[in-house]
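Student: I would love a firmer grasp of how sequence relates to backbone shape in proteins. Thank you; the sequence and its tokens follow:
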Amino acid sequence: MKPSKQNNIVSDCLLEVGSLLMGSGASTNRIKVTIERIAETLGYETEILVTHKTVLLLLKNKKTEKVFNRFKKTAPHGANFKLVSGISRMSWRVVEENWNTDQVNQEIKRLQTATRYPFLLTLFMVSMADAAFCRLFGGAYVDMAIAFTATCVAFYVRHLLLKNQFNFYLCTTIVSFTACFISGLAVYLQFGVHPNLAFATCVLFLIPGIPLINSFTDLIDGNVTNGLVRGINAMLIAFSIALGMLGTLYIYNF
């Protein structure tokens, strides 16, 4: 295989790894370490720049000393820890079993097509989680039912909006408003023992925990730019949640 073609294959492989990790909620340092681990086994030295929406890669072939650079836009950001852990395990297998690029690409395709949890199961478990938070804060079973219902409807609305590619922050505002409007009706009608607890906990599934954690770890690791971007992104999500709640408070005049 020609060196230039081999460089293209290796760079595409490594950039795909970086893009998938960034889009699945991995920290910047983890992305760099994983790419460097795979590249080292394939016979390349790397310099990597990871931004919020792009992965830039500079490769140096250890044998020919030739340098090659490329970049790739990252996938839409979300949370897929199954993919993150799968790629991490794969990177160690690359080192231990001395994989080539074809094996790495095959494993990446397998991980991308791996089955995720069914939507209805995710819907039920997320709704149960918010209901459990309501109980944890002192809510009665009827308050848990209110929180469960509000979360269930709001999560389904979120699924539809994201499927139709709505702006993420606008989507968060609408979903927050939907959950609070349903639970707020119980507060307005004084239905339940502590309906205000259902109102407060029905939006907890929207809290940007992953961006906040990644922001902190990036800042600690010295990736200041990504840390600030992720922190601002988390603050915008929190603002969108608050905006949705504010709209409900205005309607019910609480």
User: Anything to note?
Assistant: The chain has two domains: 3-113, 119-252. The first helix runs from residue 3 to 23. The CA atoms of residues 180 and 200 lie 8 Å apart. Residues 3-113 form one domain.
